[in-house]
TrEMBL record:
Organism annotation: Hymenobacter guriensis
Record domain GP-PDE: where: 8-277
Coiled coil: none
Protein name in the entry: Glycerophosphodiester phosphodiesterase
Highest taxon in the source lineage: Bacteria
One Pfam family it belongs to: GDPD
Amino acid sequence: MSDSAYYPVIHGHRGCRGLRPENTLPAFRHAVQLGVEVIELDVVVSADNRVVVSHEPWMSATICRTPAGLPISASEQYAHNLYTLPYAEIVRYDCGLTRHAAFPEQQPEPAYKPLLSEVVRNLDNLACELGRAPVRYSIELKSDPAADGLFQPLPGPFLELVLQELRATQVLPRTTLLCFDKRILQLAHRQLPTLPLCLLVEDVQPFSQHLEQLGFTPAVYGPQYHLVTPELAAELASLAVQLVPWTVNDPTDFMRLLALRPAGITTDYPNRFLPAR
């Protein structure tokens, strides 16, 4: 590819968190309408084993309201544990009317936490209506060893529930699975060696150490953007590992990273960085 043809794929973080309520149908639909080709989202599991799109396995005090429309305090949010609630109860909470204070451009509107299957069906239909190719998905399994059995299933059942949904919706061939928890990625690699996997990182441990702990070379490496250096980019390129840093919202940071030729950029503001059509 010539330099003039190069441009990273823009991944819409939680849809487009800077513009619409995160991880909701309004955010995902707006991102698709903007022209995003890859939707990044997070999944957790409900008490009745439904795969729910949510960044936290609880109702965040920052953005969610109770079914009665009341705010949730920071001290109470963990009691609204999605892993202990059936989806019929989860869907009664609103997580769209309260604007996230860090995103002043975000347009609040009523929104609930959707099922992964609902998101895929909705966006596939929207892409068809727009005459666009179906979007691809970067799906993060929100797994933490300290939360096993408390806020999430064990890694095996968690992964299996997600894979069942991806197969049922026929979206597995255009999905990359993301995780900070190496246990999830190790299981996925053993079960589906050709499935693209992304190791997410937010610490300063060298890539080589992460690789040694993981036990295989992932298709994608997803570090927090400030961790990306020319040396890291060169190391990844030498191993044919795609670099997709997160979460890049400032044009200055974007231009710095652009010089390192990442495969993709994850952003809350895809409108700022999508190439002109």
